[in-house]
Task: inverse folding
């Protein structure tokens, strides 16, 4: 396993938080841990460079000096669906280019934590989706499930689509994003009963998450 691909049941479920926590875990197992956020929308200029905050947080989490443009080859200003943002800026997201950037990073590190955008079938261009990207990179996939009302349907639809796509499903992680979520434990039990892939961790809700505190809740080797 050279890399791990992080996807989610939707946008806003905590993919970046989970990815950073996984990087924290991986740094205890490997000497060199790289990161990648291939496509990101919602960015501002920092130090003369258009940067997405999620990608910046990932860059800070890794322990290898990788240039931002390699970590996040496609970065768009408006916080909208990536394929629409790309169209507005006259850019075509090319999965082959992402593969090249990934290979470049992989040559420099022991493992690469790659975070997708949006949900599993979020479009990247007129034909490709996050699913296409995960298939192209051919690395195990972890599904982040935002624990809130409606998560069962979203999670089961997504995991079934992942299995149909032929990717290697490493497991799933539940992220508590709603502090008022009723019957949280019963929903988690339902997920464990219905998803064949293992639960790799359950993150508690936190208004000011501390990665060092959250990382021990994960079981990833």
Result:
């Amino acid at each position: 396993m050279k890399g791990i691909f992080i996807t989610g049941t939707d946008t806003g479920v905590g993919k970046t938080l989970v990815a950073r926590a996984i990087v924290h875990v991986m740094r205890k197992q490997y000497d060199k841990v790289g990161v990648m956020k291939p496509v990101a929308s919602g960015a501002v200029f920092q130090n003369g460079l258009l940067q997405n905050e999620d990608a910046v947080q990932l860059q800070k989490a890794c322990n290898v000096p990788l240039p931002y443009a390699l970590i996040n080859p496609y970065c768009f200003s408006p916080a909208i669906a990536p394929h629409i943002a790309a169209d507005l800026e006259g850019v075509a997201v090319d999965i082959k280019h992402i593969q090249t950037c990934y290979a470049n990073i992989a040559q420099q590190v022991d493992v690469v934590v790659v975070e997708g955008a949006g949900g599993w079938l979020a479009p990247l261009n007129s034909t490709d989706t996050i699913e296409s990207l995960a298939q192209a990179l051919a690395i195990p996939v972890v599904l982040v499930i935002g624990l809130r009302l409606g998560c069962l349907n979203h999670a089961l639809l997504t995991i079934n689509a992942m299995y149909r796509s032929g990717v290697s499903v490493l497991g799933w992680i539940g992220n508590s994003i709603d502090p008022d979520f009723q019957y949280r434990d019963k929903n988690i039990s339902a997920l464990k009963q219905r998803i064949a892939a293992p639960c790799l961790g359950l993150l508690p809700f936190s208004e000011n998450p501390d990665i060092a505190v959250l990382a021990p809740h994960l079981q990833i080797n």
Observations:
- The chain has a mean pLDDT of 96.
